[in-house]
Amino acid sequence: MTARTDVEAVELANTAFYETLERGDFDGLSELWLSATDAGDTSISCVHPGWPVLSGRGEVLRSYALIMANTEYIQFFLTDVKVVVLTDTALVTCTENILSGGPAQESGELGPLVGQLVVATNVFRRTPEGWKLWSHHGSPVLAETGDDEGSED
C-alpha cells in the first residue's frame, strides 16, 4: 500500500467513528475499536472531555453506551483534520465542532441544542480487518484563540 492509500483508509476509519456516534450505532462503534486479539498486550484507552482515562475494551465501550443512552441528538463537524501514518500506526488530530441535544422534554421535544468545541486525537492500528481505533482523547476548547493581547512573549 502506498502512503496516500493508507492516509485515505485512515480518514475513512476516522469518519466512520464519528458517523457511528451520530447514528447511535453501538454495535458498529464496537467493531471500530481494536479487539483483545488485535491489541495484543496493549489495551485500548479513551478520554472523554472532563472524564478520567478509561482503559480496556469493556470500560471504553461502556462509556459510549452511556453517552449514547443519554444523548438524543449529536452531530460532528470535523475541521483541521490531520493524518500521519507510520507503518502500522496512524495518528489523527482534529477539531470536533459538536452540536448535541439533551434528553427530550416532557412535551416530547428535543432538549436544548448545545454547541461545543473539542480537540481530539485518535490513534489507529492496522489490522487484517483494516484500521481500528486504539485510543481516543478529546479535550474541550475552553478559550478562543486570536490576538494575544496582554500575553508576554
TrEMBL record:
Domain SnoaL-like, chain residue ranges per copy: 10-141
Cross-referenced Pfam families: SnoaL_3
PANTHER family tied to this protein: NUCLEAR TRANSPORT FACTOR 2 (NTF2) FAMILY PROTEIN
The name this protein goes by in its record: Nuclear transport factor 2 family protein
